[in-house]
Each structure stands twice: as C-alpha cells, then as structure tokens.
Amino acid sequence: MSQYKGEIVPAEGKLGILLVGLGAVSTTFIAGVEAIRRGVSQPIGSLTQMGTIRLGKRTENRVPKIKEFISLAELDDLVFGAWDIFDENAYEAGLDAGVLEKDLLNQVSEPLSSLKPMKAVFDNRYVKRLHGTNVKSGKNKMDLAEQLMEDISEFKSANGCDRLVMVWAASTEIFLEESDEHRSIEAFEKALYDDSEAIAPSMIYAYAAIKSGVPFANGAPNLTVDIPALTELADQYGVPICGKDFKTGQTLMKTIIAPGLKSRMLGLAGWYSTNILGNRDGEVLDDPESFKTKEESKLSVLEQILQPDVYPDLYDGFSHVVRINYYPPRGDNKEGWDNIDIFGWLGYPMQIKIDFLCRDSILAAPLCLDLALFLDLAKRAGMKGVQEWLSFYFKSPQTAPGLYPEHDIFIQLKKLKNTLRYLKGEELITHLGIEYYDD
Ligand SMILES: NC(=O)c1ccc[n+]([C@@H]2O[C@H](COP(=O)([O-])OP(=O)(O)OC[C@H]3O[C@@H](n4cnc5c(N)ncnc54)[C@H](O)[C@@H]3O)[C@@H](O)[C@H]2O)c1
To answer: N or C: which end of the chain has fewer CB within 10 A?
Structure first.
C-alpha cells in the first residue's frame, strides 16, 4: 500500500473483462450483468453494486454506496471477451451450463450469442478430464504467451477499450508446487522457451496479462500467479494481481462460522465437510490431481482462523475432512453438508449440522464482477503486485511473502473497506468509539 500516490484516475471509457474459461461461472456472470443492465434483475451478492460504506463518526450519518463513494467502472461500460477450449458461444455455453433458466438467457441472447471464445492455451496433462479442439498451437510456451498478448491487444482495439482486466474462471488444474522455474522472472521465461512442465497454462495467461499491463485475478485454486516470478513481474509492470479460488459455498460458511465460535472461546473437536455437485467443475474435480489442488485450498482456512498454536486447549489436533463427490443429477446446484463437533463449558460436547443447498455459479458470479471492478480501481490508483485487501473474495488469499493469510471474513471485509477509505483519504474506522463517551 505504500505504493499509493494519492490519485485515482477516473473510470472513463470502456473496461474490457477478459475471462479465461467460458463455463458456468463466466456465463452466469456475463448473462447476469446483461440482465442487470436491462433492468431485468438486481446485482444481488455484489458488494460494489449494493454495498455501502460508513464514513466518519456514527453521528455523521455518512453512509454512501461504495460505487458512489469511489470511482468504479459502470456496468454499461463493460465489454466481455473469453477464451475456451470449446468453441460454443456464450449463449450456447450458458444453456449447457444449466445454471440460468432458458427464459432469462433468451432475454440476453443477443450479446451472449455474439461472444465467441478465442482459441485457448490448453494442455490436457493439467486438466485430465477435458478434451477440446478450440486450442492454440505454438512452437513453445513463450510462443503461446505471445499469441495471448496479441489476442489481448486485438480485443482492446477491436472493442475500443480504455482498460482491461483478466479473470481466470477456467477449470482447476492439477496440483503443482513452487519449483525453481517459478522463483525468478529469468527462470520463468527460460522455462517458457524450454516448454517446461512446471509451467501450467494458467501461468501462461497470467504472464501474458501482466506483460500487457492487465490486472489478473485467479478464481481457481491453481498456483498460477502465486509464484515469485509472477509477483515480481507484476511489481515491475505496475500490475495488480490477486487470488486464489473464489470463496463461495462451504468455505464461505466456514469463514463465517469459525470466527464466531472462536470469538466465544468454544472448542472444536472436528469439522467434516462433504458435498455433491454435478457440473463440469465437479467432473474436473473428480480427477484426484485436480481435487488435490482444491483440497489444499479448502483445508487451509480453519487452521488459520482458529490458531491452535495460540489456543491449544480449544483447537489442538481438531480433525478437518473435506470431500467433493461428483454427482451429475445435481448439476450446478450443489448440496454441502457440514458436521461440526464443538465443545463448551467443562468440555461438554455439542454438534452443529449445516445443509447448504447452494448454487455455485450464482454465488461466484458477483465475485467476478467485484474483482474485475476493484482490480481496475487498484490499477487506476497506481497499486501494484498482490492486492491482499481483496482476500475477502478468496479461499486461499495471496499475501506478501512471509505473511500468513487472513481468512476471517469479517476482518477481510474491514480490510477491504478501510482500503477504500484510505484511497479516498477518509479516516480509517477502528470501532473503538470511546470518543462518544468523552465529557
Ligand atoms: N462456482 C464456484 O462457486 C467456484 C468457487 C471457487 C472456484 N471455482 C472455480 O472456478 C472455475 C470455473 O468454474 P465453473 O463452474 O465455471 O467450471 P466450468 O467447468 O463450467 O467452466 C470452466 C471452463 O474452462 C474451460 N477451460 C479449461 N481449461 C481452459 C484453458 N486452459 N483455457 C481456456 N478455457 C479453459 C473449460 O472448457 C470450461 O468451459 C473452476 O476452476 C472452479 O473450481 C468456482
């Protein structure tokens, strides 16, 4: 944040949102924005559109909407582009995803039908369950990155965009750990030329975005932009980045409930989470290597929120199990069950059961919108590198090296709103409130 220079370039002109992956989340997002623009629906779930921000003292009654407080791109100024390994347009992909009703999709069929995905950078070794043909070929991974950079610049001029952002909403790739190829820009670029296996397609998109000066958000749990080579590149190019893995469904619930249990010093013996889903995401996650990427992301939250090292009597050695079961009949309408074994006064055990009949893409779409608008704001405010203030949106928030991520959703929201206040030179809110009782 020390990078902030105190000026925000106004959000004038068109903002292009480039989506990697034109599946359930992306089509629900685009169709939703088109429906909202036409007054058919409301932007429910979006903080940028519906949220407010308190300014100054409680007695001042200054509570504007966030979008009126700070300069954000208007929905009417958004233009969408996408890459996918299947060549269906956004209308067909939306029908296939089966999230939104046909009636609603038909009302926005015109802009959706005209959105045809660009050829993807894809390699079946990183997403084993999918086979598509709308895929680029190139002599090495650097060549593919250059082709993406061309796509980006052509999209920008063809659509008359002033600014762009990129969001990864493509399938979850197999689990990769940071390796030497990821540790410096030089090593990463050499690995691109050498076609190294350490470089996943998502990293090629992120590299192309950053080199093109385009902010990048990672909605999946892949390592992608969470490697020193790309965080350094983002700093060097003055590009904001953030990730990983949209916080929706079960993990959203976890980061709402766990801080509450801890605030009352209630102990936890175990938390068992399982869910069924039947969309393409579920099919991809049915592959153990993609599931491992997701599992790592989902498991990290409780440990950090509950701090067993600080509260060993309450949280030492609790059992945490996460399962995802691919079950086609449910489509995108996931059902998540949680069994939470807690204990209270004198160690007496209690149980909490959650049965969340959620809709994955309905929860994820507004996050895409907010992330695109806030990343664009960050760029216009001259912020660069990892944007930890956007951790509110992620299951595994990216942080500066050596910092543990903050998972508590209430702290994340305070951090986000205080960042907005900071950008506008407003007083930060500590909730101390002692001044109301001064004589
Ligand atoms: N929906 C949620 O609540 C949620 C929450 C957290 C994370 N996510 C993640 O968001 C991503 C998208 O979810 P979804 O439900 O839309 O999945 P989806 O399977 O419907 O869509 C993903 C699309 O990405 C495409 N794709 C795969 N690899 C690609 C590549 N290299 N380049 C371009 N396109 C590629 C696929 O063909 C597919 O159309 C997944 O990784 C998922 O794990 C979703």
So the answer is: C
The answer to whether residues 342 and 269 touch, using CB atoms and an 8 Å cutoff, is yes
Owning domain of residue 34:
14-246+361-423
Is 323 inside any structural domain?
yes
Q: 332 falls in which pLDDT band (50, 70, 90)?
A: confident
Pocket test of ligand 1: the residue of 18, 22, 25 to mutate, having most ligand atoms within 8 Å of its CB, is 25
What burial class does residue 378 get, using C-beta atoms within 10 Å of its C-beta: 0-12 exposed, 13-18 middle, 19+ buried? buried
CA 83 to chain CA centroid, Å, is 17
Pocket of ligand 1, beta carbon within 6 A: 20-25, 83-86, 97, 120-122, 127, 130, 132, 169-172, 201, 219-220, 245-246, 248-249, 279-281, 284, 360-361, 363-364
The tens digit of pLDDT for each residue in 413-434 reads 999 999 999 999 999 988 888 8
104 with 177, same domain?
Answer: yes
Co-location of 183 and 276 in the same domain? no
H-helix or E-strand spanning residue 165: strand 161-168
pTM for this model (two decimals): 0.95
Are 230 and 204 spatial neighbours (Cβ–Cβ below 8 Å)?
A: no
